[in-house]
Amino acid sequence: MDSQLTMKPGPRWWLLLLIAFGFWQILGFLDVAWFVLISAAKGDAVVWGKLIQANLPFWVFVALFTTPVIWLARRFPWEDGKRRRAILVHAAGIVVFTVLHTVTFQLWYFLFQNPKPFDAKTFVETIPKMVASIMDRGIMFYLIIAGGTWLVETYARDRERERETAVLVLERAQLRASLSEARLEALRMQLQPHFLFNTLHAISTLVLKGDARAADQMLAQLSRFLRLTLESAQMQTVSLALELEFLDAYLRIQKVRFGDRLTVQTQVEEDVLVAAVPSLILQPLVENSIQHGIGQSPDGGTIIVRARRRGDAVVLEVEDDGPGLQEAQMSGKGIGLRNIRERLVQLYPGGHSFSLSAALRGGTLATMYIPFRRAESGGGNGSDSDPDC
């Protein structure tokens, strides 16, 4: 059976039918009250029982035929592209509704209110006249029922569309968040093999040189660095305090490699330690300074790591006094710098900045602005970090 022939889920139509039935009964009682007022104005005696018996059944039968009209209105809605059919169907519906209502009401009258014995011939002869006399009311009643049905259907349909739209928007937002999270995780995982390759290469170089003690120290610091990263493996952002711990573990590895040639200073404001920053965001910047700055100078040099708050933003800077980057290197197409740019776009779309420029004292200055957000968990207090390596 066509599902459209049954009442579709949506509004609680049984409740609406009860409301419609009550509505017609209220009109029936108002009709009776109107006759009472007229009788009282004429000075006639008011007999409530007779008035109710004579007028209320009319409205009861209107209420009884409300259900098929609602079904017909839902089956043939007033919609674009279907209005010609709806006009034909509901014009016929008005006629049928009026005729059936008249027949049932007249039958009630002849059986229970007419003092004369029931005469089928007289009953049939009165039907056309009664239909003609109440056709205007039949049209009005039918349109009230059908129009009310269409209004309820339209309201319910709009609410359902709003709900579906809200669900769709939520699902799209969740999908974007999932894709962004996957993208961030892929970028994060990209850093570790890159860093591990460089570190293991340095360790193998020390082993080949016969410097087992330095190689052992570097392995110990590598173990610490990996432990810290594994402990925060599920976190895309960490507190700046914990990020400085990551950096300290990395710098201790580089300290074994470069010795006194490498000096690192940290200038971090106390109130910014609780700020949430992308995990492992400083390490590639410092690595870039070592690779293209300190590592290119026989005498080594100094790297300065700064962090401060400016209004609603956190400013992170990594500066070195090396020979500086070439113009091609300033574009940041290496793995580390490209990774930083892409992670910032994912985490702070339109709300960040990152630049490489020449430092005032020579060398390179990397500057990053990100929104200030308090980290959900401290994740470390930086107690193991060494401000001057």
Summed over residues and divided by their number, the pLDDT gives a mean of: 77
Query: Low-confidence segments, ≥5 residues, pLDDT <50?
Result: 1-10, 378-389
Instruction: Using the alpha-carbon principal axes, give the shape.
Output: rod-shaped
Helix content: 55-70%
H-E string: HHHHHHEHEEHEEHHEE
Concise description?
This protein has 389 residues and is α+β, with helices and mostly antiparallel strands. It is built from ten helices and seven strands. Helix 3 (66-75) crosses helix 5 (120-208), helix 5 packs antiparallel against helix 6 (212-231) and helix 6 (212-231) packs antiparallel against helix 7.
Description:
This protein has 389 residues and is an alpha+beta fold. The chain folds into two domains: 3-171, no CATH class; 211-371, 2-Layer Sandwich (Heat Shock Protein 90), CATH 3.30.565. Helices cover 63% and strands 12% of the residues. It is built from ten helices and seven strands. The chain has helices spanning 13-42, 48-64, 66-75, 83-113, 120-208, 212-231, 240-258, 282-292, 327-330, 335-347, and strands spanning 237-239, 262-268, 276-278, 301-310, 313-320, 353-358, 364-371. The strands form two sheets. It has a five-stranded mixed sheet, with helices on one face. A hairpin with a 5-residue loop joins strand 6 (353-358) and strand 7 (364-371). It starts with 12 loop residues before the first helix and ends in an 18-residue tail after the last strand.
